[in-house]
């Protein structure tokens, strides 16, 4: 029986092998089925291995050193509780995506641009989680970015994708350089790049603060922390849908892993101001992300933006964990940390599910613009059902999993008065309010997404003639939906499974949930607060069925189909339905005017004029216009100015040389 | 043993009282404007009539449209069953704390909003979009109110809160008062009462909840109406159990205490209903885009209350 | 090579110069091209043999030590691959009639002469001789840059020539000053110019003289390294000459000048009283890096684009050596080797591309990965490598430079990172437009020789993942040598 | 000793006059006169080199002296005269920077070179030290000529005077090997340049400020 880490590395090797194989045979017929089924198998093995490891005893980590990478260091890989959890997330997503790809991949226009990079991408994410020295970590990190970039560029001819790829690559490299600086700081001039050495070393507060900021830049830009999120809504939708699912559902989590690994594990005990920064950024990200999503009409971009919101939620939880940890309240830190990890897990589930749904809609109708869809619930019953589950889950509604993690986060927040620092005492309730706002907006946003896409009447011929997708895609979605429900009604099991990580990282853990009555969970004590997803679900089902029973027992069964009532107004054309823009109108009025300088321009033709009236919505992306455009402009201007040097005459060039010489001589004359 | 009895009675009690409360409020409002008004039992009659009628379903209504009434009703009922009314120590109070109860109401709203979108008329769209906006504004305020209570009672478990506030002397807290006002405003918004929404209107572009359920008829409509009644009752009993847990029967006290508790509960309901009616007659419905100010005020009150608590706790 | 006492050093020098004479005489394309390849291969092999045979004692003129073996082997290897590439490239040029057979002869002769000059510069133990050798190499490249005799080519060659001559003068003046500084200690004549003897007594030289000398040497050889603001000749020379020459320029000639600079840096570092060369080199390096990074954005000509990226990388390398210390020096060496391999590979690809498309305008080259997958993806990998993306070699060196610098001089590291990111943005921007999107321009099949390009890229990839232990030990030793 | 001081004085005077002549070059604004002054420059260089050869009794330096005399003092100036006539540029005033500032800059440069060289510890014998100071100033002044002149021919002149400074330094360095070779190499280099000017008639292109003209064959639009 080989050790767990070796098993994982073997799986990675297998994936890389598959990538090479895919290059060789990518243009053949069977390639798609072969590659995806193979990746499915490998990811499944890795998933099982990681799960057994986490449920077994992850107390003692296993390591592996390969003679590659930095010569005098070698490449270190390590499997501990934390990495095993993220391995589960990665490989679960990978397996689901592969299964989905088995069906979806056959609609791919350019398989030879997807197949080689898909396994490589999976391998890259696995490696990042396993890496145990700075060099390997960064190498795998950037490898992951590179492969995902290649996948984004798969449909490079579609307008905008090239730009998306460019922005993505630049932001990714920005993040990597930030991480590079952070590790340089941690490793010190001697260059001890091994994580073990970094962990052992003690770091001054100055270093700690700098590293935290650099990690927020580095990992944050990959995770999509506002204002570093700009690449995300461009890149994620550009990729094929199962890849979008991986990028949104899994790769952002790998970024979170990087943040946790460095800030919680390597950096040693945190300082409380750190938590203030993280909480602030997290809450801003949550609200801004979902507001962006609310304004969006493109289904996949909407999902990408909602990813940003979830990242914000996770960072808020991590910030709370930092705050408690900094004050030595291990139990509460463990609570917040567990909430964060739980949300990581949940989001990877339902975001993958939703992107699969978007992919299914895309294959069925060829449209990503919600205003061209509608009424799909009649044409694609199964897809619409699972997507509904996904929407309920992501909207944090009981009894599904999204609610549990958000509930845990709120529970952690309710403990914040125990914190000694006034800044935190006052900040946390505000953050909580913003989180609640975000949660409500998420519900609104997904009512809109689901309502416009699947309900109502079809707005286009494509939507009218859509057909249900294939079996593989459906099974992938159903599996994820089931997992969403299970994690929602049996949260105790998940929390207990996560406890080794909190013990490992924070040195504390939440109370054991397994011996709570009726499988309910109580974060601190039952007297304070408790929740039981299973019973809630049972109650709802029972009371709902009771109602149904009584009604069909005693009330009339009569049912007549007729035209919609609509107060007598019969909307002749489906276009007259509420579109996504009109659904967002109230929230646009309330929040958008502030966040996006949103304006509605109505062009109402005078009486007698038969032109249709037009409504134009003006939206601005403040972050892009205030932050990125100025930077780009500055670079453009300065390069324009410097570019004159390309067109000088030889005499001028000689003058440059002359000036340099004289300056250096002067320096010498003055200096020495 | 007493727990299960309490739980059972509670579940039935809310079912029974909910329409009565609404009927009472309507009656009082009618009397206040010098109308005779329908009898307080009218809501029961309405429900029965609706149940007997046939359902007219729009051509392109989907299965979601048909299951929604039952889901929403169930969700609200469960929520209502978990709020201590006349006695604490319900059997299942630990299945969901206050946050979970709010979330349950949230899922009810979620499905109702979806149902509003289902038929594809613009009225449904208006209703749903405004409903979700109001929710988005109300939830932060609600959370801060929860924060406030949790700080005082050290719990979000309603029975515990009620026990705590009922038994030990908390004293008159400014912040609790603020929280009460905030909760009242949120309750108005959530139940679609004046000034946020007018439950008695149709064919007005200002309506929210009614527009959302416009396509419903027959037994489905009955379910939804019933849900609305329950929701009103729930909020009032929530206010009652948190802010005036006076005479609410504690765990293990004998049947007499239960009887007293029940009686007092009815009195509380009557008073609250009367006050609500009074308030609704006294105020005018406001424009849709005034809601942000209204609920923003609630939010501010909640935040203020929380911060004041810190101050008062800190010495 | 069956002569009893085979001396690789003489071989490395004689083979090129003899074949140069031969090639100047021989007519015909096929044979001369083959001969060119064979000669380069022979040179490369004899250079390899330097590893196995025991080294000759450092004489008055010839020296073989750890430092220059690295350079010689790299030099001859890239020379060899380039000769293969140029065989297929020049064939096309002859077909299109851009080159006449007469100039072809001249071209091959000059190619070998240049190889001779560069090898001589590496092996020479005498700073005067080194100067002469560098100048030979420079002048030959000047002639090759002008070989197309177009308006632009002549103009580029002329600019190169004039600026180069000034550089020559500076370098010579520096050399003389070094001699002057050495003479009182070592005594008149030959010995005072022999490197090995100089370095022995460097500590006792007259410091102020050395300082002035180093400034002139820095500018003189720095002109050829292409450090801003002495870089003016470099972009045009790359853009207007034949692509094999561009490859050799970026891949090799810059290294020659850099090598000379390093020698004198060591010399200066050995003298405690003299100024430390580090800060000067760091400054010049950073200036070049940032400047070139900005210049990349406005480039319309694909060869000029990569010429500027050469300036940028030279800046990084000089910066690394300027920082000094085991890590940075190691990184500098690695970066130099990787850059030579990668950049020449890129120029191989670019050469074929511009031949196929019949233009060097970036705006006229689109969607390469669609029309010419091998070239396109080769270019993508090459640019990824040059931009410092893993798992390719340059990533490792940039990792070491940046991280080690940030721990020592945070502010410098910030500037460094800024420059790198800037250049990265420009390169990827151009890459996306060249390699992806709707194809544009001719889609004719390329009769290209992919072997050199992919060989280089494979080496770079391998180095990025796994560096063989002996090589590492070697580099570390050299790094220590550089102090 | 007497002899030594005398030799010292003579070479010192020669070197100093070389610097002086460089100043005179800065002062010229007509091409012909510039060429004449340069011829003088070369002549003085030849003298000083010859003197060094005599003092150091290093006969090979005489070769350098002869090269300097024949090639730089006679051949090149004549050739340049003809080019100037052919290009018909003997009339135009072609200083890019005014004479006054140029002279001031020259002063500053000489001062700078003095400052730098007088740092040199004296056990490097005074002759070498002084010589270096002069040589450095000649080099800098030559570069200054190149920079301040607009015309190819006068820039070549500047380059040659710069190179004269090098030769001066080289010969001043006692027993330096390769001096002859270097001077030969440089003569060839200069020959190349002159031929280049002659062949490509590089007047305008050498120093055209017309960027748009450069664009088309640089493939660079602005």
Q: What key phrases describe this protein's structure?
A:
heterotetramer; B: 315 residues; 11 helices; globular; C: mainly alpha; 78% helix
Shape of chain C: globular
Given helix and strand content, the structural type of chain C is mainly alpha
Share of helix of chain C, binned: over 70%
Our count of helices of chain A gives 24
Strand tally of chain C, please? 0
Strand content of chain A: under 5%
Task: State the distance separating the first and last CA atoms of chain A.
Answer: 68 Å
Provide the gyration radius of chain C in Å.
21 Å
Biggest chain pair interface = A-B, 88 and 90 residues
The percent range for strand residues of chain C is under 5%
**What is the number of beta strands of chain A?**
5
Ranges of chain A with pLDDT <50 over ≥5 residues?
Answer: none
**H/E order of the elements of chain C?**
HHHHHHHHHHHHHHHHHHH
Spans where pLDDT lies below 50 across 5 or more residues of chain C: none
Distance between the termini of chain C: 38 Å
Oligomer: heterotetramer
Radius of gyration of chain A: 27 Å
What would you say this structure looks like, in words?
The complex is a heterotetramer of chains A (672), B (315), C (483) and D (222). In chain A, 69% of the residues lie in helices and 4% in strands. The radius of gyration of chain A is 27 Å and the shape is globular. Among the domains of chain A are: 346-547, no CATH class; 622-671, no CATH class. Chain A has helices spanning 4-25, 31-55, 81-104, 117-130, 134-152, 161-187, 195-200, 205-223, 231-238, 241-266, 272-295, 299-326, 330-365, 376-379, 381-394, 401-414, 422-454, 461-464, 471-489, 491-506, 533-554, 580-595, 622-643, 650-671, and strands at 62-66, 75-79, 559-562, 599-603, 614-618. The mean pLDDT of chain A is 92. The longest helix of chain A has 36 residues, at 330-365. In chain A, helix 3 packs antiparallel against helix 4, helix 3 runs antiparallel to helix 19 and helix 13 (330-365) packs across helix 20 (491-506). By secondary structure, chain B is mostly helical. In chain B, 71% of the residues lie in helices and 1% in strands. Chain B has helices at residues 2-32, 42-52, 63-81, 98-118, 122-153, 158-167, 174-190, 209-212, 218-243, 255-282, 291-314, and one strand at 55-58. With 483 residues, chain C is mostly helical. The model of chain C has no long low-confidence stretch (mean pLDDT 90). Chain C has helices at residues 8-25, 29-52, 66-96, 101-123, 127-145, 151-186, 195-201, 207-225, 233-240, 243-269, 277-296, 302-323, 325-357, 368-371, 373-386, 393-408, 410-435, 450-465, 469-482. Chain C has a domain at 276-483. Helices cover 78% and strands 0% of the residues of chain C. Chain D has one domain (2-206). Helix content of chain D is 78%, strand content 0%. Chain D is globular and about 50 Å long. Residues 203-222 of chain D have low confidence and may be disordered. Chains in contact: A-B, A-C, A-D, C-D. Chains A and B meet through helix 16, helix 17, helix 21, strand 3 and helix 22 of A and strand 1, helix 3, helix 4, helix 5 and helix 9 of B. Strand 3 of chain A pairs parallel with strand 1 (55-58) of chain B, so a sheet runs across the interface.
